[in-house]
Amino acid sequence: MMDVDELIFFFLFILFSFILFFLFFYFFIFYIILFLFLLFLLMLFFFFLFILFNFNF
């Protein structure tokens, strides 16, 4: 059997690991969405440049 302080430490460790995991997961998803959004803006920018250069020449 574990002591009370070991049990409390064990539960705190599990809780802390879950909190870290969810924070990491949240930031990971956030940065993926941000990266895809910036990629989309870059593609739109190059598309408009392509159209402008085609109409100019």
Describe this structure in words.
- The chain has 57 residues and is an all-alpha fold.
- The chain has one domain (1-52).
- 93% of the residues lie in helices and 0% in strands.
- The protein has one helix spanning 4-56.
- The longest helix has 53 residues, at 4-56.
- InterPro entries: ABC1_TM_dom (IPR011527).
- Residues 1-57 form the ABC transmembrane type-1 domain.
- The chain crosses the membrane at residues 7-29, 35-55.
- It comes from Phakopsora pachyrhizi (Asian soybean rust disease fungus).
- GO terms for molecular function: ABC-type transporter activity; ATP binding.
Topology overview:
Elements: H1 4-56
How would you describe this structure in keywords?
ABC1_TM_dom, single chain, 57 residues, membrane, transmembrane, mainly alpha, 1 helix, transmembrane helix
Q: What distance separates the N and C termini?
A: 82 Å
Number of domains: 1
In angstroms, what is the radius of gyration? 25 Å
Number of helices: 1
The helix/strand series, from N terminus to C terminus, equals H
Helicity level:
over 70%
Largest sheet: none
Shape: rod-shaped
Low-confidence stretches: none
Tell me the structural class.
Answer: mainly alpha
Strand content: under 5%
Query: What is the residue-mean pLDDT, rounded to a whole number?
Result: 90
Counting DSSP E segments of at least 2 residues, the number of strands comes to: 0
